[in-house]
Amino acid sequence: MFRTIRNIEGEKVDYTFHQGDAGEKIIVVIGHGVTGNKDRPFVVALADALSQEGIPTLRMTFSGNGDSEGRFADSTISKEVKDLGSVFDALDGWKILYVGHSMGGAVGVLRASQDTRIVGLVSLAGMVHTAAFAQREFSDVTPDKGFMWDEPTCPLSQDFIDDTVAIGTVITYAPSIQIPWLLVHGTADDVIPLQDSLDIFERANEPKELVQIDGADHVFSEHTSDMVKVVHEWVRGQIRLT
Fold it and tell me: How many CA atoms lie within 13 A of 110 on its CB side?
């Protein structure tokens, strides 16, 4: 439906568009987490469910990941915020509900704090304390030599570390977000602790909602249907209000 999307560096951003027949010109955009892509099973499941309800949905892969152009070593939160802006530019005239998982959740907070094209925000196991995440997960890896979680296709760059440290936490951006916000987090998440969502929820403006899914891990492996149901119902509610 849309043209080729490129970021400000000229790199192609891979995406899949799911048709919908909702009357309003409103679209859901789904962004993935660190080392992920648009084809993660729970991302596809969510997009399919929304599309079947008639809600147009676009799942995207940030540059340097999956089939998008660019180097993974250049992927940072700040660059992905810009990537998301380029996707929104291609959706000129659409109202956007953004769903971000993990690092994509941090991207969503930063983008929503400055971009009025977003009319609703969903954080799925959203990363909040970025510096703490990098320290917790990668303190034993040498940047520009080692890899994230020993995955050879995902080199840990000094740029990534520096960016997470410079941001520190996205909690300070919460008061700037003036749109409806849903946070969904599993109680068994061992990558991004539930406390991240609890912390930023406390600083968020109304209307806001936090749903804890008992026993769910970081990617909702055994609880995909539970996550999809929560997000689906919330998005439907937002579209009725928009």
Answer: 24
For domain 15-128+171-241, give the fold: Rossmann fold (3.40.50)
> pTM of the prediction?
0.97
Q: What are 25's two structure tokens?
A: 């010109």
Helix axes 41-52, 224-241, angle to 10 degrees: 40
Tens of pLDDT, residue by residue over 128-181, are 999 999 999 999 999 999 999 999 999 999 999 999 999 999 999 999 999 999
For 193, the token pair is 């602790």
Break the chain down into helix, strand, coil percent, rounded to 5. Answer: 40, 20, 45
In which region does residue 44 sit, left (phi positive, over 0), alpha (psi from -120 to 50) or beta (all else)? alpha
- Order of strands across the sheet with 118-124? 15-18, 57-60, 26-31, 95-101, 118-124, 181-186, 208-213
> Looking at residue 2, what is its pLDDT?
72
